[in-house]
Structures are given as C-alpha cells and as structure tokens.
Amino acid sequence: MNKIIKEQIAQLRPSATLAINEECNRLKRGGKKIYKFGFGQSPFPVPESVVLSLKNNADKHNYLPMQGLEELRAAIAEDLNKNNNNNNFEQDDIVIGPGTKELMLLTQIVFKGDILLPAPSWVSYQPQALIAKNKVYWIQTTSKNNWFPTASQIEDQVKKIKSENLLLFINSPNNPSGTVCNNLQEITEVAKKYKMIILSDEIYSQLNFNDQYKSISNFYPQGTIVSSGLSKWCGAGGWRLGFFAIPKQLKNFKNSLKILCSESFTSVSAPIQYAAVEAYKGDHSKYLNAVKKILSFTANYVYENLKSNAINISKPEGGFYLFPEFNNAKFSSSPEMCRDILNKTGAALLPGSDFGLESNKMIARLSYTDFDGANFLKNTLGSKKLDTEDLKKYAPNIVAGVAAIKDWSNSL
C-alpha cells in the first residue's frame, strides 16, 4: 500500500504535541494519574464579549472573501500597528486562515528556496518543509544565547548552503523554551545582507511577561511576515483563526498564497471571523493582565522549584513553556528519558529531539498549563498578589507534578 503514498508523506508521523495529548488521555482513561505537561493549550476561557459576539453572529452563513472579512483584517492591522510594530499595515496586507498552522503549510508550498530553522523550533515547521520538499538547515542554539541563533551562526550557515532564496523562522516568545529573542537587531542585519525572508511567529507575543514586546518586523519591515492568531492569548485554539501580515514588498508572494487559500480551505468560518472582530477591537486588557499574572507566577514557581545543580533551566519570559535540561540523567536519548519520567511520575513531557535538538541532549519541554484556567481566573481577579497557596488550590497538578519531577531527578 505504500506505493500509493508519496515518499515525503510516508516519512511523517503525527504531530508530537497532538500525539502526547492523545497518549495522556489514553493513560488517564486507564486510571493512571497524569500531569499533562506535554500539550501547550491555553487553559483559559475565551473572553465573554468575544463569546457573545460569536453567539450573535451564528446566523452568518455566506462564504466570506478568501483573504478574510474586511472589517476583521482592518481591526488586525490596527491592532498590530498599535501594539508591537512600527509598520503601517493595512487591511490588504492581512490574510486570514484557519489557524496559522495552515498558513505556514501553504507558505512552505509557495516558497521556492531553503528553510533556516533554529533548534529548538516548534514541532511542525520541519515536517511542513518536508511535505513541501523544502530543504531544512538547522542552527543549533544553547541556553547561553537564550535559545536563539546568533547573527554569526546564521551567516555561517548561509555561506555554507549558498542558496539564493532563504526563509528564516523566528518564534518569540519561543515554543519550546519560553524565552524571548534579545538579538533581533543583529539578526536583521544578516537578513538584509542576504535578502532573506523572515517568518516571525508571534503567536505568544501578547503573553510576554515583561510587557515590552518587540517584533523583528520593527527592524526589518520589508522582509518580515508576521504570524499570529487567537489560539494563545484569547484561549481560542479550537476556533482555528490565525493571520499573516505580509509587507507590500512581498505582494507577489501574498497573491500566490491567496490562490492556495482559495484552492484549499476557501475561507475561514464566517461566525468565527465576525466574532474575531470583537477580539481585536475590544479592550481585553483586564483579561490579558489577569492571564499573564497567573502564567507568570506559575512559570516562576516551576522555574524556582526545578532549577538546581542537576537541572539547568532558563528563566521564563512568556508563553506556556519551560525547557529543563537534566544534567544528571543518563539515557540513550531524550525520548527514552521522557518515557522514564512518564512511567515513574505520570508527568508527560516532550523530548528536546522533537524540536530539532540532538537526541543525546537530556532536555524536555514542560508546559505549565495543566489547570482549570476559568476557575483560577475567577478566584484571583483583581489586585490580589498570588502566592503558593493559590497554586495549591487552583493548580494542584502543577504543584504535584513538579514535585514528582524533582523527586525523579534527585533519585538519579
């Protein structure tokens, strides 16, 4: 039967993040206590005004323009220009898709050239390149550089491959490391020198803990595609709405992408798009501040309780993740280590090798979102300062799971 499957497709396996979520659910149904630290889904509810807008627009049933609802594209452009860009995006620069994942896949299909991926990178970048038959060149990073590539590393790789067309992915705050890229300016200089395109995955940008987010498009607007959506900051992963903001200098690329959109998903669900107008036009600062307060406190609790001589871990700066390295772990690979952690503690982590790191590095991604976000939000809204008792009450799996991992590490 493999004769009817294309070679590059036969090499694929299910997305690591989705696979670990299904495995956790299977183990839980079997009666095992599981700490779901492997799947990065927002635990928080969608803001009430956005939910109400969806209800009020449930009767919208016509196909919308393939590029997206004009009012929504205008709202996104205004929101981008106000919050984290020095660009002057207009509604015609925005393309709406059923999540950024789909738009990234179509981008890989459109793009003719080679892909530069920092390791670690989100689990779907490389498989999508494989589907599109784009060659991937990894740039191995370290915690010393906050898990982002240096300008010299990028340039060294570019000189080796001698490709005319390059697409570099930058994801900040980063999945899986939870860190923010601090050397955007120097990366920009290399990108300009070699006329590369940058895809700036900013899906966690509004969950930046220091409230001083910078997009690489601030420094390189003419060559940067900004990618974001509703899934993380708005708690609406299942709604499947994302967008690309594409500079006018890449108009031909945008037009080709639109054609692929028209031949694949046609247009995003109409009620979701109408509801998303409220997401981007409404004032959700109270909601966002409360969400970030919980995430930041939870992240720092995990960080403070895990860091030790045995566990090297970078301080969390945004998003849902930490990226601990277990210095005293002696396994043949990071997947073997994560299986041992799951079997002995019930804590489900994803191995660093799923994110492009060498498998002999004992590193794993930990998502600190295994709690009831609606309950946590409801009971801690306002100026109250969070403490460990709040975590024990509203995020008991975080406390217990971290303690189990710490005990596991100490037993090695």
Layout of helices and strands:
Layout (H helix, E strand, L loop, with lengths): L6 H4 L5 H14 L5 E2 L11 H9 L13 H14 L10 E4 L2 H11 L3 E6 L5 H7 L4 E5 L10 H11 L4 E6 L12 H10 L3 E5 L22 E6 L12 E4 L5 H13 L6 H12 L3 H22 L4 E2 L8 E2 L2 E2 L7 H12 L1 E2 L1 E2 L12 E4 L5 H8 L7 H7 L1 H15 L2
Parallel strand pairs: 1-12, 3-4, 3-5, 5-6, 6-7
Antiparallel strand pairs: 2-8, 7-8, 9-11, 10-14, 13-14
Written description of the protein model:
By secondary structure, this protein is α/β, with parallel strands linked by helices. The chain folds into 2 domains: 2-45 and 285-410, Alpha-Beta Complex (Aspartate Aminotransferase, domain 1); 50-281, 3-Layer(aba) Sandwich (Aspartate Aminotransferase, domain 2). Helix content is 41%, strand content 13%. The chain has 15 helices and 14 strands. The protein has helices at residues 7-10, 16-29, 48-56, 70-83, 100-110, 125-131, 151-161, 184-193, 251-263, 270-281, 285-306, 334-345, 373-380, 388-394, 396-410, and strands spanning 35-36, 94-97, 114-119, 136-140, 166-171, 197-201, 224-229, 242-245, 311-312, 321-322, 325-326, 347-348, 350-351, 364-367. The strands form 4 sheets. The chain has a 7-stranded mixed β-sheet, sandwiched between helices. The protein has a 3-stranded antiparallel β-sheet with strand order 10-14-13. Helix 5 packs across helix 6 (125-131), helix 5 (100-110) crosses helix 9 (251-263) and helix 7 (151-161) runs parallel beside helix 8. The termini are far apart.
